[in-house]
Each structure stands twice: as C-alpha cells, then as structure tokens.
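Protein entry
_____________
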Amino acid sequence: MNRVLTLASSVVGAVVVALDGTVLTVAQPTLQRELHASFAEVQWTSTAYLIAVASLLVFAGRLGDRYGQRQVFACGMLGFGAASAGIGLAPGVGWVIALRVAQGVCGALLQPATLGMLRTAFPPERLAMPLAVRTAAIGLAAAAGPVVGGALVTELGWRAVFFLNVLPACGFGVLALVARDTGRPRPTGARLDVSGALLLAVTLGCLVHALVARPVSAQTVAGLAVAVLTGAAFVRHERRAASPLLPPEVIGSPAAGAALGILVAASASLFGTLFTVTYVLQGALGLDPFDSALRSLPLAVLMVLSAPGCAVLLRRVGARRTTGAATAVLAAGVLVLSRASGSFALGAGFALLGAGFGTVMVAATHVVVRRADAGSAGVAGGLQQTALNVGPALGVAAATSLTGAGTAPALTVLAAVAALGAVASRALPGRRVVSITRRADARERARVPATMRSDDVR
C-alpha cells in the first residue's frame, strides 16, 4: 500500500477499536435489560474481550512480521467487522460473550498491525507525525464514542452500536487485502515461537482476569499465582529459544523497555483517575452521565491537540525531555482533580490529563516502534498495545482498592504512579541520539532497486 492508504488504514483500524470500547459501555444497561442477562454476564461481555485481546497481541504482532502486516491487518479488520455484525444479530447474551471473544482475537490481529504498517511505510525520522495523527484520531473517537453510542441506543437500540463498525472494518479490510506492496521490506521468515506465545498468552490472560475480576476472591489469587508461574516459565523459555517470540533487539533495548513501562504507568494513572472521578461527579456532585461527560470533554480535546504538538517537540527537544515533561503534566492533572469541585478546576484537571497522556502516548510509542527494525515492527506494536491494555486494568484495580481510604488519597497515589514515568524517561533517547534502526533501514533499502525507492524522497 502507498503511504496515504497505509496511514488511513492505521487510523481507521485504531478508531474502530476505540469506538467499540466506548459505545459498548453506553449500551450495556440496555443490553442487559433486553437480553434478560445478569450483571455478571454483562461484565463478561467486556472481560472476555479484554482477556482475548491482551493475551494475543504480541503473538499477533509476530504473525504480522512473518506473513506481512497488511495481510494480518486485513484478516483482523474483516474478522472484527464480521464479529460485530454477529453480535448485532445475537439472540442471547451467551452468543454476545462468545462473539466478543472472537472480536478480541480479531482486535489482537489488527491493533499491532496498525503500528507495524506505519513502521514499514515511513522512515524512522518521519514516523512521529503519522503516530500523532493516529493518536489524535483515537482521542477524537474517545470523545465521540459516548455521544454517538448514546444517540444510537436511544433511537435504534443497543444492537446498532455494533453495526456501527461493520462497514468501515470490512471496507478497509477488503482494501488492505487487494492492495499491492510498493517495494517495502518483505515479511521475515523467522520461525514462530508457539510455545512462548502460549506461555505469554496464559500469563497475560490470567493477569488481566485477576485485575478486572470483582470482587476479589480465591479465584483471583489463583489467577495471579498462575500468571507469576507461567511468566517465570516464559522468561526461562525465551532465554533458551532459538527464535524467541520477543527478539532481543526489541525487548533488550533499555529505551524500549522504559517506554513500555511509561505507557503502563501513564495509562494506569489515567484510567484509574477516570474511574475514581466518575464516582465523584455522579455521586458527590450529583451529575447525570451526560453532564459528567461534558465535564470531561477537555481531556479528549487536549489529547487531540497535543498529539501533533508532540511530533514537533520530539524533533526539537527529543523523547527524554518531552516524555518527562508530559508525565509531570499528567501527574499534575491527577492532583488538580483530587481537590477539584468547581467547573473551572475540573476542566483544568481534565485538560492537563489529556495534554499529558496524549503527549506521552505519541512519544513513548515513537520510541518503541522506531527502535525496532522493520522485521520486528509487529512485535513492537504488540508490546505497545499490551502495555495500553494491562495499564488501564491495573489502574482501575488500584483505584478500586484505594477508594476506601478516600478520593484524595487514592488520586494522590495515582499521581505518584504517573510521576514514575518522569523517572523512567531518563532512559529515553535525547534529541541528538541517532536511531539504531537507520543502519538496518539502509541495508533494507540497499536490497531494493532504486526505481522502487523513489517514494522515499517524495
């Protein structure tokens, strides 16, 4: 695919997934009522998806590296669209849960590919702005999701929110399937580490389930214990594997490791804060859901605006200073919200959250994806998406545990979690550090005839 179509496909794929999550939350009460489902069954419509997608993201990224990002993206989008249509036609909640698992599998296929396609289409020095466009689109989808979902549920019923994604998912899936590659690096022929993928899937699946399970029980503790054991087995296996699931050049980079940790900390702080503040807005302040959404609108607006600004900051001051400042802004937003009650203070707090998180997401993602060579772009994208799935689950679990101590102490702890990103940002590259991928890119281009490289200078 050419660069314009690649960027459009990446953006639409990310938006489809973001919209799906936000509109489902709005639709769940009506779904529960019309399908005569229990509260636990409705919870599983979210939990089943989260477990499926989180456990398979890295392996799906490796599939993209082996068979081609475009092909895996096409399969993911077509499957996601088909599963969405199936949920819209489901006769009972059991079918909804089963199809949400299928939707999670397809979401795991397409999400790393949205980043892997960008890495293979754009040279490292021009990657920041496409990532910023993608992040801004996600922020816009997050803002529009509750409004669009509420309107669809009110006028057409809960099934309409799932049909919303069918046309864009299937349309861009077909486009990716029939598109031609334009002289970019060929998929790698590295062997698939199925044993490592299985161990990692069990580890992440058990971890996510333990984090989202309510209330905490013996089953939760057992899930955490299994996650620890299989995680240790995974690390041991990766050290001995001839073709590990996580290539050393990706996971062994201190900068990439720090960036992934920052994404976990920032997303945990953000979503834990949103979980806590929602109860403050609708409980202590007595606002209805729509008024609460209006109060949080500055978050989405600043997230959209900060993304392209981050691309400029990365060029001028580098990832280290950009990310360090952004995590400080995010922590400041959490602290403002911990003491806010008036409209101005709430708006300022949400604005700081959006500006900080939007900048962190672009900068940290840029480090992770840029420092991976084109043959490992899918795994890098899978790791980035895994961080952004585990982080929110961890943040909400922490917020739930801390709310008994009061809102202000809980948010203070979440601000401290965000501030950890400022410490980790010291391991990120500065403005004058040259990407380790440039020599690899040069070797890749040297194997491509000059007539096929003409798009690099356009």
